[in-house]
């Protein structure tokens, strides 16, 4: 989540829980973007990719928070947690367990409105060696802490567009959202998740509770989408890798 900074560059005093909730209520009450505004945020549907290409069990966009509350150290441990999961036998077994035995994944970073940035492009996982190679690519990827706000709604809308442009034909389409903050910029996340549901896309969340211990119900009520959608929590950086592994296995199977 983005931290407010005053003109002198110093962080402002932490707002109270009441003030935060009031601010979220005002943000959530804002009218949803439509038409041209959706398109600028990434909501325009990409042409032709959804039904073509190699059939896969799942197309998964893994979107990682890189906003102002995410330091370079924190971003690194998130990415290392992603890499470790793809080296784990539980994920390899999950990949092999689907009807097609294939999954397509993309890794991206996000912060404020319109910032979803691909870190690892669409990659086909058809076995253990593919998963291990992806883990190496994640380790080598140049993760950069972007700063700025946390635009969960924009991230969802842009990730739907990435799924529409996926070069593989997926039975299921899912956005895997990792963050330690609430929406404080851009599109209302409730409107964005409705957009995802209309496109047949599930949204799941992994929330890191290092700043706000009430994020789990917030994500359940405002962010995740789909009949089987879920939220997993990590109390801190040390719990992140296990939490992400559990989340990934659950999404793949």
How would you describe this structure to a colleague?
This protein is α/β, with parallel strands linked by helices. The chain has one domain: Rossmann fold (3-Layer(aba) Sandwich), CATH 3.40.50.410. The chain has nine helices and six strands. The chain has a six-stranded mixed sheet, with helices on both faces. Strand 2 and strand 3 form a beta hairpin. The longest helix has 16 residues. It is globular. The two termini are 30 Å apart. The N terminus is likely disordered. Pfam families: DUF1194 (PF06707).
**Order of strands across the widest beta sheet?**
3-2-1-4-5-6
Average residue pLDDT? 84
**How many individual domains?**
1
Which band does the percent of strand residues land in? Answer: 15-25%
End-to-end separation: 30 Å
Low-confidence stretches: 1-49
- Any idea of the CATH class? Alpha Beta
Number of strands: 6
CATH topology: Rossmann fold
InterPro entries: DUF1194 (IPR010607), TAT_signal (IPR006311), VWF_A (IPR002035), vWFA_dom_sf (IPR036465)
Pfam family, one: DUF1194
What attributes characterize this protein structure?
253 residues; 6-stranded mixed beta sheet; alpha/beta; single chain; disordered N terminus
Short structural description:
This protein has 253 residues and is of the alpha/beta class. It has nine helices and six strands.
List the helices and strands and how they pair.
Layout lengths: L16 H13 L5 H7 L13 E11 L6 H15 L2 H8 L6 E8 L6 E9 L2 H13 L11 H13 L4 E11 L9 H10 L2 E8 L6 H8 L8 E4 L2 H16 L1
Parallel strand pairs: 1-2, 1-4, 4-5, 5-6
Antiparallel strand pairs: 2-3
């Amino acid at each position: 989540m983005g931290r407010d900074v005053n003109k002198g560059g110093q962080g402002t005093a932490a707002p109270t829980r009441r003030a935060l909730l009031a601010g979220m209520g005002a943000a959530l009450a804002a009218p949803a973007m439509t038409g041209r505004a959706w398109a600028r945020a990434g909501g325009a549907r990409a042409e032709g990719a959804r039904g073509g290409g190699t059939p896969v069990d799942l197309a998964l966009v893994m979107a990682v928070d890189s906003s102002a509350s995410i330091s370079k150290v924190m971003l690194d441990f998130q990415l290392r947690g992603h890499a470790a999961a793809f080296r784990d036998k539980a994920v390899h077994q999950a990949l092999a367990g689907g009807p097609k035995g294939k999954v397509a994944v993309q890794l991206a970073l996000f912060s404020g409105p319109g910032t979803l940035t691909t870190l690892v492009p669409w990659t086909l996982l058809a076995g253990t060696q593919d998963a291990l190679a992806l883990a190496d690519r994640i380790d080598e990827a140049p993760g950069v802490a972007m700063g700025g706000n946390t635009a969960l709604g924009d991230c969802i809308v842009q990730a739907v567009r990435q799924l529409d442009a996926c070069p593989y034909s997926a039975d299921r389409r899912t956005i895997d959202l990792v963050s330690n903050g609430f929406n404080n910029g851009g599109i209302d996340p409730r409107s964005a998740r409705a957009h995802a549901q209309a496109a047949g896309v599930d949204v799941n969340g992994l929330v890191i509770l290092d700043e706000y211990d009430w994020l789990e119900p917030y994500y359940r009520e405002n962010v995740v989408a789909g009949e089987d959608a879920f939220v997993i929590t990590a109390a801190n950086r040390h719990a992140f890798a296990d939490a992400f592994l559990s989340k990934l296995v659950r999404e793949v199977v």
